[in-house]
Each structure stands twice: as structure tokens, then as C-alpha cells.
Amino acid sequence: MPLFGPEATLFAVLAPFVAAIFAPAVTRHLKHNAAWVLAIVPAVVFLHFAGLAGLVAQGAVFAPSTDWAPSYGLTLSFYIDGLSSLFALLISGIGTFIVLYSGGYLKGHPHQGRFFSFIFMFMGSMLGLVTADNLITLFVFWELTSITSFLLIGFDHLRMASRRAALQALVVTGGGGLALLAGFLLIMGLTGEANMSAVLASGDLLRESGAYPVVFLLVLGGAFTKSAQFPFHFWLPNAMEAPTPVSAYLHSATMVKAGVYLLMRVQPVLGDTELWTFVLPLFGGTTLIVGTLLAVRQTDLKLMLAYTTVASLGLLVMLTGTSIDKAIEGAALYLFAHSLFKGALFMVAGTIDHEAGTRDITRLGGLRKAMPITFAAACLAGLSMSGLPPFIGFIAKEYLYEGIWGEGGASALLTATAVVGNALMLVIAAAVALRPFTGVKVETPKHAHEGPILLIAGPVVLSILGLLFALTAHWTGETLIGPTVGSILGEAHALNLHLMPTHIGAPLFLSLITIALGVALYLRLDALRHAMFRLLQAIGWGPDKGFDQAIAGIVSLSTGVTRIVQGGRLQVYLVLTFAVTALALLVPPALTGSWPQVPSVPDFRFYEWTVLAIAAAGLVAVLTARTRLTAIVSLGIQGFAVALIFMLFGAPDLSFTQFMVETLSVVILALVMTRLNLAPRDHRRVVHRVFDGAIAIAIGFGFGALLMQITELPFDSKLSDFFAEYSRAIAHGRNIVNVIIVDFRGFDTLGEISVVMVTGLAVLALIRVRPRRQREDVAPATEQPVKPAIKHKEAAS
């Protein structure tokens, strides 16, 4: 039975954010024991989702929700099924050990409290992402993972490499997030639904839409950047600049699997098309091979594991792209197995670095006696990563081989890709698990010894779980993997897992080939590393360097554009602003043909014609003024004419306001003009005057057309009726205009008053500034005149 019930999911998602607020204070007061207390939060979240997992395995689906912004149709709605349940369990379960591990790894660090705060925010963001039902909510959490990962990767902000890696991760994943937002908006427009559960129930609506390729590419942009698919794979290994707890969490259960989660989630509505089954296996297989080959090249334990994470994500994308039931089973199993063994191995690498002082595999050896528990955990996790029995990694490999073998089409190529990739991952697993611990004892920078309980708890538990879940394969398949596969396929799916193959067939032979090839390559690891080094040197350019070139190009382009459009001349700014405004007003009606009807000549009274004549006279006066000051004063005639119109049509208060504003405007402009060093006349050429006049006419015509279009629309009196009905009842005022200004729009009025105040202060400062020539003519009383001889001598020197 669930611990708190499905309605507590919101609190489970928000709990890490609350923990992030109090983490610095807890760390400051409890010091070395803070990790044990803080780990309670993800542990309780894990128990919550573990309680729901049993019901989900029986076919239950939970969709708790609460209003967020009802006026915009936004809700904090959650969707708990097999897929989101498995991810939530991995995030909270592994997150518990990551918090403990962080307490040991960063022991004594002056900013450990801040680190805990960042890791909890990251945890909450990922939990929200995998459980969110509303598409906009999902996107918000999606971007929060990018922001919080930026903080974690750049945690050691004094190092240039950390800052670059954090910025790179933010740019790549943030750019993909914008593409995903466009995809979500398009999905909402095509389906009319804002919740993922409703979109999943739409059947073939998206696949049959003419906009399907666009939706597919936009969703793919978000998923590929987040899950580091080729050619966006470069940011993930660079993220190893983060502390090891971040690397272990990032690679095992959180951010990098968000893209895979998204592809699995939308499989029922976007998958199983020619585009899907071609693009995903192509890029996933390429990422698998590229990731494993680059891993072979590395000697840093974290980088070796990081590139195999890239490869594993490629394998998951490739399997998801096949849309074959058995391959999907293999993908779900491998996702689960990978989280366990990769989290354990990253923590092992961090423990070695923490206790031996280096992660360089060429400077490590013979640590098995000094670090026996870490060695045992590394062996268990390495065996699971290698796909050897009796571990969950072996079962996953068997199922994925069964899924892609003998399906026709490109199955032979996919199978070969999987075999080569898995063999190379066996090489890295063996290198990480064996090389640092076996062989001759190597002198390390620090005296190596076993890590404390906080460092070894995570790798030991996760590596043992990889064995226990395999030994209880039937329960694992029935409770965890089966419901996950059902969610990915969009229908109930029964899965009966077995630890050992039930018959001798192609999957078993492919596993044997993988193991044999992996062992052979491991024995030639040093030669293989040197070969990859020479190959990469020959290639030279890569996506990582291309990222730097792209950023430099963007900076150069923006600098050039800024110099053109913002060269420091106010006249250019005004021309560009008004020109863009004119285009915005005139282009839409020109393209759509929605011009307003030409009004008939109104039947004005003689005094109304008089006001119109005054306005026209003011316009002529402005255009024919000989000096700038005369033009400014003449400009006020237009405002006074408008004020007269307000007065004639029964708005004396508005008319008075217009008189005051117009008078102040003329006075302020006149004062400013007298303080600026401007020519008294306008010396522009005729061409410039004609050009500026054309823009002015276009602006006037555009606004006039817009206002006529508005007046042609049916008048909606709802707002007027509201003010008429409630002005006295709510604001206790009879003058509706005053009530609107003071009560209903009080903040707007306050803002307007603030603007007037700031303008007045600026004018006052401008008035008090003396011209430069006047300042030079009036010397201070204490200043002594300089002798001409000294001046002459200084000039000569």
C-alpha cells in the first residue's frame, strides 16, 4: 500500500526544493552528520513512489493535479504510470546514496551546504520532469534541470574549465529545450490537449498530421541535446568537471536520461513511422559506436565512464527507435541496469580519486588490498556492465539482442552495431574495475586506503542490487520492467523475465561473441588506445572545437550587428524604431487585405471644425518653423486641440489632464533644448527630410488605420458595465474615471507618477548642469594662474 497516497505526489516532488532551502543551515549546524539527516528527504520520496509501484504494476494509473495558473489553463498535474514510476524510483533511490556520498566526498568543503542545495534542486527538477502531465509544467521542469545542472557542473567556479563546461551544457541543452517548447506548443495546437496523458490517448492524430515531421524534429531536438546524441555528445564528457557526486547522479538516473524518457514517453503517438525507425536507430547506433571508441581513448576513469554513458544513451535511443516490442523490453531493462552499475562505478572512481589522489588509470594499480570493499563493488558493477551472468546487465543484453535479431531490414546492421558497442563497453568495464586494483602496487599521490562509510555505501548497495534484481528476475519483470514497457508501447504488456536463457538461440550466441570480442580487445587495450589517439589526431576538428567556433562566430556577428544598429547616434535609433513600428502596423493588413473601410466625411458642427482647424494650423506651424524651439512650442498646439476635443465631448477631468501633460511636455522639451549643444536650426539634407517624413507619414497612417479597425469592431460593454456597477460598491466613488485611476488601476497610476518623478529629477539635474565653456571660464578662487614661462616650457618638452 502507498505510504501517503497518490495525492501526495506534489509534496514528493516539492520536498527536494524545500530541502534545498534548509540544506545550508542544516550543514552549518550538523557539519559531518548533515548528510545522514538530509538523506532522509529522498529516502521518504523513494518510499512514496515504492508504495505506488505495486499498484502501478497491477495496472493502476494516477493523475493527481492542483491548480497553478487557472486563468491560463495551467495546472500542476502529474501522471504516474510504469515509466514515470521507474524513473522516480531511480531518481529518489540513487539520489539518497548520492546525498550520503556527497557528505563524504565534500567533507570539510566550505561550500558543502550550497552543494547540497544545488543537488536537491536538481533532484526535484528531475522528479518533476518525469512525473509531470501538463506539457508546460514538463517544459518548466525540463529547463530547471538545465539550470540546476549548470550550477552543479560549474560548482568549482574558480576554474576556467568548470565554467566553460557549465556554459556549454547550458547552451546545448537550453537550445534543445527551446526546440522542445515549440514542439509542445505545436502538439497542443494539433491535438487541442495540454496534458501528456490526453495526448497519448489521441492515437494516430499526430502521425497522420501534415505537421508530423516538424513535431518529430522539434521533439528530437530537445531529446537529442539532453541525452547527448551525436553530434551533441560533446557536452556530456566535458561535464566531468563537476564534482564526482554530480557525475554519478547525472549519468545514472537523472538529466542525461531525460531525453530517453521523452522519446519513450511519446513513442505511442510519434513512434513506429518510417521517419522514427530510420532517424533514431541511425543516430543512436552512431552515438553508441562513437561513444565507446572515444571511451577507449581516455585514461581518466571519469572520462572513460562518461563516454560509455554517451554510448549507452545511444543504445537506448537505437532500441527505442526500432519500435519492436522485444527491443523495447531490452531498452527498459538496460535503462534500469545502466542506472545501477553506472552510479556504482562513478562512485568507485570518485572514491579512488578521493583516497588515492588520482583518477589516471596509468598511475593506478594494486589497490585491492588497500581498498577491498571498493574493489568488490567495482567488480560487481563491472560484471553487470559487461553483460555477464548472473547480473541484471546480462538479462538486458539478452533481451535487446532478441529484439533486434532476425527482424529483417537493417536488423543485421543494428545487431552488429550492438555487438561491437557492447564488446567495447566490456573493455571499459574491465579496465575501470580491474586496472586500478590489480597488478603491481603503484605509488599514488596520496596514501591509498578504504573510504569511509559515506563513500562506500552507495557503490556497495547499487552493485549488490544489480545482482539481487537479476536473482529475482520474475519479480523485477512483473513489478518494475513490465509496467514500464507497457507505458512505452501504450498498452498493457506482460513480461516474464528469466535469469538464464530458456533456450539456446541467437541471443545467447551473440552474447558469447560479445564476451569473446570484448576480452580480446581488453587484452589489446593499450594498443587500441594508441590507435584511437592517432586517429583522432588525424581527424583534428571535432564538435567540441566546433562549439567554441560557433560561440566565437555568434559573438562576432552580434558585435557587428550592434555596431551597425547601435552606433551611438540617437537619430539612427529613432529611425530604426519608427521604421520597424511602421512595418509592424502596415505589413499585416497589406498581406491579409484587412484594411478598414474609408469613413465618410463627418457632419461636424462649426466649433468642431474650428478645433480641427487649430490642430491643422499647429501641424503647419511645426513643419514651417524656422528654429527647433519654435517647432517644440508649436507642437503643443496639437495636444491642446486634443484637450479641447475631450472637453467638448464631456470629459473635463481628462481634458485638464491633457492640458497639464501637454504644457509640461513643452516646458520640459524647451528646457532640455536650451541645455543641449544643438544647432538652432535643422540642417538635414532634403533627402533625409523626405525619408524621415515618409516614415512619419507611415506611422501616422498605420496608427490611424489600426484605430479605425478597432472602431469597426462590435463594442463590448462588459468592462464599462463592470466599472459602472462596482465603482460605488467596491471603491465607494461616484466618478468612474477617478475610481479607475486610483483604485482599479492604482499600481498603474503609481507607476506613472514614478515616471513623472524620475523625469522631473532628470530635468532638474539637466538644468543645474552648466555648459563646459562656462565652467572653463570661471576658475575656482583658490586656483593660482599658471605662469606663461612654465606653459611654454611644458609645451616645448
Please tag this protein with its features.
797 residues, antiporter activity, transmembrane, transmembrane helix, antiport
List the helices and strands and how they pair.
Blueprint: H1 9-30, H2 34-38, H3 40-57, E1 65-69, E2 74-77, H4 82-105, H5 112-131, H6 135-153, H7 160-191, H8 196-200, H9 212-226, H10 235-238, H11 244-252, H12 258-270, H13 274-297, H14 301-322, H15 325-356, H16 372-386, H17 392-404, H18 411-434, H19 453-471, H20 473-489, H21 506-523, H22 525-539, H23 543-565, H24 570-592, H25 606-624, H26 628-648, H27 652-675, H28 686-712, H29 718-731, H30 736-744, H31 746-768, H32 772-777, H33 788-796
Antiparallel strand pairs: 1-2
Helix pairs in contact: 1-3, 1-5, 3-4, 3-20, 4-5, 4-11, 4-15, 4-19, 4-20, 5-6, 6-7, 7-9, 9-12, 11-15, 12-14, 13-14, 13-18, 13-22, 14-15, 14-18, 15-16, 15-17, 15-19, 15-20, 16-18, 16-19, 17-19, 17-21, 18-21, 19-20, 24-28, 25-26, 26-27, 29-30, 30-31
The biggest beta sheet reads:
2 strands, antiparallel
Strand order of the largest sheet: 1-2
Query: What fraction strand?
Result: under 5%
The first-to-last residue Cα distance is 94 Å
What would you call the quaternary organization? single chain
Structural class: mainly alpha
Question: What is the count of helical runs?
Answer: 33
The coarse overall form would be elongated
Report low-confidence residues grouped into runs of 5 or more. Answer: 778-797
Number of strands: 2
> Helix fraction?
over 70%
Rg, nearest Å: 35 Å
pLDDT averaged over residues: 88
